[in-house]
Design brief:
Blueprint (H helix, E strand, L loop, with lengths): L3 E6 L5 E6 L6 E7 L13 H8 L9 H11 L2 E6 L4 E7 L4 H11 L6 H18 L3 H14 L12 H4 L4 H11 L5 E7 L3 H12 L19 E6 L6 E8 L8 H12 L5 H7 L6 E9 L2 E10 L4 H13 L7 H19 L2 H15 L5 H9 L3 H10 L6 E6 L2
Helix pairs in contact: 2-3, 3-8, 9-12, 10-11, 12-14
Length: 406
């Protein structure tokens, strides 16, 4: 039997998407919640990430110790993460452990949110924010996103700031949870060896009574701001440079060409940036990443180097971007496509990889692609489609930020 993709919607709006593979030796489940930094009011910046932490602090049925102990008993590869776009809770287990993993994760998504737990975890979050400030590349990216997106919430910091987390109350978090963690904003994704009907029945029993209600995202118009930031920190002995420019959204069919272009120009091995900057020793790091987001997207270019070489690095990086469509051969494109296809296939061979791909696809597009369909989309990218992409999204930096010593 081959893997099959199935989809169902509970009466309260919660969606389940699954790819069952009888030949798999494991199973994976993830709860994808459309609640991220972009969904937060400015005064609650960081609440999504803080709430992710609170999900592990216990429920009406389980204490925090119970949650941690049960994950250990399952032998689960589990975790959670928060981005600008979503908060995701997942577990990868042996097939016989999947019902317990579903029960545990589903229960966690209706947390107690106790005041005493909130105050203890707030200290952890504030410490995490403080530690984050010690990473110059992350500080630079935060400043870059704020300058690029302006007042749009995509410029929010995922962790928030001490000024937003410090005064945050448990009641404010409960209000945010009630508005964003509604069934209509949640997709449960499954991959690997399992019985879909049994899993669906369990999910409906567990989550079917959750109160329905709208949890629509307010997208707002994204108008990237042309800007330049020159930030100084005398404690640094390296210079960090980032650039942002528009790219296709997560819903745009040109996203496959954008994936190929980003890898062709800025992968960490064998890309144009590698040969222009890393191989000759001009920069220590250099990359270009395609960031596909809900209804928008961006190309993020980054480099790190000795301060004395910062101007040359910026010129070289801008030159590689400007010449992206030149001398684009079929051979260069095929090498990049094949590398991406291998990467995607290796991920897709694991139930957890397929679970994440299905969950993200449904969160963004309310649709799903099989592994073969994704590979076919990649293989269909041609030099002509790359040039069409560059015509629609020229690689001209809109916002540039540099962080280094005086």
């Amino acid at each position: 039997m081959t893997a099959t993709i199935q989809h169902a919607v509970l009466p309260n709006g919660l969606e389940v998407v699954a790819e069952a593979d009888p030949s798999a030796h494991t199973a994976a489940v993830g709860f994808f919640v459309r609640a991220g930094a972009r969904d937060e009011p400015p005064e609650l910046m960081g609440v999504s990430h803080f709430l992710e932490h609170m999900m592990f602090k216990g429920t009406a049925r389980r204490s925090a110790e119970d949650v941690n102990r049960e994950f250990d008993e399952l032998g689960a590869d589990y975790n959670a993460y928060t981005s600008h776009e979503a908060t995701v809770y997942y577990a990868h287990v042996l097939p016989e452990m999947l019902p317990r993993a579903i029960d545990l994760l589903g229960d966690m998504l209706r947390p107690s949110l106790r005041e005493e737990d909130f105050e203890v975890e707030k200290k952890v979050i504030l410490e995490e924010i403080s530690m984050y400030e010690d990473r110059p590349e992350w500080r630079l990216q935060d400043a870059l996103l704020e300058a690029y997106f302006g007042d749009h919430p995509l410029g929010h910091r995922v962790l928030g700031t001490a000024d937003t987390i410090g005064p945050l109350t448990a009641d404010q978090m409960r209000g945010y949870f009630a508005g964003r963690y509604r069934p209509g904003a949640i997709t449960v994704s499954l991959g690997g060896r399992f019985d879909f009907d049994q899993a669906l029945s369990q999910i409906e029993t567990l989550c079917g009574a959750w109160d329905a209600g709208p949890a629509e995202r307010t997208h707002g118009s994204v108008a990237p701001r042309q800007n330049r930031l020159d930030l100084k920190d005398d404690k640094l002995n390296r210079c960090y440079l980032s650039m942002l420019m528009p790219a296709p959204s997560a819903q745009d069919e040109q996203r496959f060409a954008a994936m190929v272009l980003g890898d062709l120009l800025g992968d960490d091995d064998g890309s144009r940036l590698h040969w222009a900057m890393i191989d000759p020793g001009l920069a220590e790091e250099a990359s270009i990443d395609f960031m596909s987001q809900d209804r928008t997207g961006a190309f993020l270019a980054f480099a790190a180097c000795e301060p004395s070489r910062a101007d040359e690095v910026e010129r070289t990086l801008a030159q590689v971007l400007a010449q992206a469509g030149e001398d684009l051969s079929e051979d260069e494109l095929r090498r990049t496509v094949n590398k991406l296809a291998t990467r995607i296939t290796l991920s897709g061979e694991r139930p957890a990889g397929r679970m994440h791909d299905l969950g993200a696809g449904w969160t963004y597009r309310r649709s799903h692609l099989s592994l073969q369909e994704r590979l076919d989309k990649l293989q269909a990218v041609t030099p002509e489609s790359i040039r069409a992409l560059l015509s629609a999204y020229p690689l001209v930096p809109v916002t540039v930020a540099r962080l280094g010593p005086n």
